[in-house]
Amino acid sequence: MGGTVRGTKPARERTTAGAEGDVVVFLIGMRVNRLTAPHRWLPVFTAMPRMLRELSRDKGSGLLAHVLLTGSPRTYYVVQYWESEEKLYAYASDSGKLHRPAWAAFNRHARKGGSAVGIWHETYVVPAGSYESIYFGMPPFGLAEAHGAVPLGAHGDTGRERFARGVPRPARDAAEGAPAAGEKEQAPAEGPSRSAE
User: Record's InterPro entries (predicted)?
Assistant: First the structure.
């Protein structure tokens, strides 16, 4: 992608993710239900960083980027961006990778009635035209880390324009009073204080 920015330095301009087409987002996490049972939840807690290292070393795995987050002192999760749904499920089902043994161990524990730790995941395949992003004063993060960051104008100056790049949404545009195809929406002045973003 021409003009794509990757790196760790905050961008001095407004950018958007350089994603094209569908985007695959996978959220996976755990909740410590019994703090007094670290022998049950610590293996789950340490399994994910090992899997992320394995995926990061294999450039063909399909994992584009990830962000580790915490929701509370008991809840931890990862937002992952994948090249495709097929690559995500190929990794999950590969018996030669770390995920399968970790999943089997968790299931063995759960069948014995273990509830010291809970796990969850959600998978989203977001079609083109159903996502948009903006970043200011940030290094490439999230979707922009996964797909590279491009100058904001490259994909549209407003959120509506960035949505309109993908799948045509005439019913939504008509209901919202969007400008007709080919017309330019009046954009507010440049700068980080645009509250509509």
Answer: Monooxy_af470
